[in-house]
Write a structure and sequence with these properties.
By secondary structure, the protein is α+β, with helices and mostly antiparallel strands. The chain contains 17 helices and 30 strands. Strand 14 and strand 15 form a beta hairpin. Helix 16 packs antiparallel against helix 17.
């Protein structure tokens, strides 16, 4: 009846004699009536204590019926679930649930030590991977581990992010809330009469992705999710700006996670995915839209505690930032940790703090215990190895976008920076080299190269805090119909940094162990400890951004370029929160193919870039004033006279910086008056009109009729001319 699942056995058989001898633990009431009626826990120092026996806990495998038939065998898929819960739940105790749904319980395994449910492959699930069961079951929780549809002991075929995966989670949550049907190993229908119905999902990578998907479905009973390095849109996992990272990604991953007994049975589903994903164009289509959870953030009712490696180049950091922004727009309660590691679990980069914080989080959201977890700073960010800071928000609330212009070469630099308009028609060119490595793109920063452009800041006189998503705009002509674009933001300066590019992505596994919870004969609560790895290097690639030039209008449509025509290419780099230190330089590298991450383009296209119209919008804490101060810039264009300043005013008029036409006319009138008095060498009148101009600018900025940049540049330019006449 259950195919492979017939091999499973119930892990613990309880006698009525044992049950009748059990004493119900003293109830310590939570914050609401539900907890008071159903909950049983003891608190010490504000958190739940381990008062239940892990060794005596009930373990069982059950099968929940779904409405889908993903393997097309004519029967509804049944989803296999392994449960461990306190023995007292067989009496009057009701408990909340910590759920980890995963496709990896048979093969890849979970955690740094790759634990699987059936390590000796005897058909019996002796182990609950990870520490959640060892730690939380004694504290009055059930731990539920779901085999995602098509994996391990669940029926079906995994559709790599498709709706069937979300349903395979939701049917279990529904069953835990008294809806739907499930059977035990003996084929008897059972109910979750021990469940409070409150579910918290957790998991790293694919597991966290399933948590995001379930939350975006708005399923009732899901109170909180803790996604770790999780996908928020599968398009962003396999594509960036229209460019595939590699081919047939969804199909290959589906094959990897499919239950070993049904790999060939699911070949048709994988082939359908290969065709629907459309690797040939890399465009966003209905296949990817189904797998985009960000667009459904308005359905999220669960709180979210997100953890992500800012240097995670498996599940890249735009997965957290796009999700985080959408959650903020919908007022979802949330918390965030950002680490300098790559694709690493917080249990392996900040273990003690992680267990303590997670404990408080689940106590608050699943047991309604009134602790201080939601009063803590919203964001924890790792600045250097094991050096953490907190912020009230991400991006930092004091961050604002600064338009950095790409400026021509100087005597010592291949390209320079401006934070104010570049009015001349300067151009620079480069030609794509599909075999160029990232190291070649970045090294020899003071030299020009034909296969890249590099714009280098002066040495910083103060630190610069980047917080947010850099946005690029490149105005250029191209001599081919198709090509790629790559942008790198680079910190040039010798420093010791987390070695997130090593094999451990920033951590090293040690021989020593630490224990978190209680153990049994088959399930050890002890795990190998880790430590951060660091490296001293002359530079750090802080963030990347890529684009298929044919997607210049839309990710949904590829439009071949017309050689020689001018295009405005706009794309985002990966999000960051990074501090460039005093004495370092910031570099912006522009190139085409990046074969480290993307399928390279072999067209050898040449770009002619219009520097004055090309920018990177840099989200800097303190905004333009802070960046100008660090760069040693006075903030304006250093005009010689009012005629020069008139060009800047005209530039901002053309670019829509003035939202009030009357104001723009008043500014122009002031400039004309200044020109007249300059010709008459009436310095007192020049100064008077410019001071009045500054007051006008102040007033318009306060009324939001003038952009920040226009206000700052025009004010600085007015001060420059005033100083000349004093």
């Amino acid at each position: 009846m259950f195919s492979k699942t017939n091999k499973k056995v119930v892990h613990a058989v309880l006698s009525l004699a044992v049950l009748s001898a059990l004493a119900t633990p003293e109830i310590v009431h939570g914050a609401d009536d539900t907890a008071q009626e159903k909950g049983g826990y003891e608190l010490e120092n504000g958190v739940t204590e381990p008062i239940y026996s892990y060794q005596d806990a009930i373990t069982e495998t059950i099968y929940v019926e779904s409405t889908m038939d993903s393997d097309r065998d004519g029967e509804p898929d049944r989803i296999a679930v392994d449960i461990i819960r306190p023995l007292e739940t067989e009496d009057d105790l009701s408990v909340p649930i910590i759920m980890d749904a995963s496709p990896y319980y048979e093969g890849l395994g979970r955690g740094n030590e790759s634990e699987i449910k059936d390590p000796d492959h005897d058909g019996v699930n002796e182990m609950f991977p990870l520490f959640y069961d060892n730690y939380f079951v004694p504290r009055g929780y059930a731990v539920v581990q779901v085999d995602m549809v098509g994996t391990n002991n669940s029926d079906g075929c995994p559709p790599t992010g498709g709706e069937e995966e979300t349903e395979s989670v939701n049917v279990v949550i529904n069953w835990l809330n008294g809806k739907g049907k499930a059977w035990n190993e003996a084929g008897n229908e059972i109910e979750a009469d021990w469940s409070t119905g409150k579910v918290g999902m957790i998991g790293k990578s694919y597991d966290g992705t399933l948590a995001n998907a379930a939350a975006a479905s708005g399923v009732e009973g899901l109170e909180t999710i803790v996604p770790i390095g999780a996908i928020s849109s599968w398009y962003d996992y396999y594509r960036y700006g229209g460019t595939p990272f590699y081919t047939n990604g969804p199909g290959n991953l589906s094959r990897r996670v499919t239950s070993s007994e049904r790999v060939e049975d699911c070949a048709v589903v994988r082939e359908e995915m290969r065709l629907a994903a459309d690797d040939e164009t890399g465009d966003y289509n209905a296949f990817w839209d189904e797998r985009n959870f960000v667009k459904n953030a308005d359905q999220v009712e669960a709180s979210v505690f997100a953890i992500h490696g800012i240097n995670d180049y498996n599940v890249k950091a735009n997965h957290f930032s796009n999700w985080w922004e959408a959650l903020a727009e919908n007022d979802v309660p949330r918390k965030l940790w950002l680490t300098q590691t790559g694709h690493v679990d917080p249990f392996d980069f900040r273990r003690a703090e992680w267990v303590d914080t997670l404990h408080q989080w689940f106590d608050y959201w699943l047991l309604d215990i009134d602790n201080d977890i939601m009063d803590e700073p919203v964001v924890d960010i790792e600045r250097a190895a094991d050096e953490w800071e907190t912020q009230s928000a991400w991006p930092d609330e004091e961050a604002s976008a600064v338009n950095v212009r790409f400026a021509p070469a100087s005597e010592t630099l291949p390209g320079t920076w401006l934070t104010s308009p570049l009015l001349d028609a300067s151009t620079q060119s480069f030609t794509d080299d599909p075999y160029q490595t990232e190291q070649q793109m970045v090294e020899n920063a003071f030299n020009s190269k034909e296969n890249r452009l590099l714009f280098l800041s002066p040495e910083l006189g103060d630190e610069v805090h980047l917080s947010g998503v850099p946005e690029l705009k490149l105005d250029a002509t191209v001599d081919k119909e198709n090509t790629h674009l790559t942008a790198l933001v680079v910190d040039y300066g010798v420093d010791e940094r987390v070695d997130h590019r090593d094999r451990g992505e920033g951590i090293r596994t040690l021989d020593s162990e630490s224990c978190w919870g209680e153990s049994s004969e088959s399930d050890d609560a002890c795990y190998k400890e880790t430590e951060k790895t660091t490296v001293e290097a002359p530079y750090e690639i802080v963030t990347h951004g890529w684009m298929d030039a044919q997607n210049w209008e839309s990710l949904s449509t590829s439009n071949p370029l017309i050689p020689g025509d001018s295009y405005s290419f706009e794309w985002e780099a990966l999000p960051e929160d990074y501090i460039f230190k005093e004495g370092h330089r910031i570099g912006i590298v522009i190139a085409a193919s990046d074969d480290r991450w993307l399928i390279p383009d072999n067209n050898f296209a040449t770009f002619d870039v219009s520097l004055g119209e090309s920018t990177i919008s840099f989200p800097v804490v303190g905004g333009k004033n802070a960046l100008d101060n660090a760069l040693g810039y006075e903030g304006g264009t250093s005009p010689e006279n009012a005629g020069d300043m008139k060009e800047i005013v005209d530039y901002y008029l053309d670019n829509g910086a003035f939202s009030n036409p009357g104001v723009s006319r008043a500014v122009q009138a002031h400039i004309r008056s200044v020109e007249q008095f300059e010709r008459k060498e009436r310095g007192d009148k020049v100064i008077k009109h410019l001071e009045n101009l500054k007051k006008l600018l102040d007033n318009q900025k306060n009324n939001n009729f003038l952009t920040d940049e226009a206000y700052l540049v025009l004010t600085a330019d007015a001060n420059t001319i005033i100083d000349k006449w004093k």
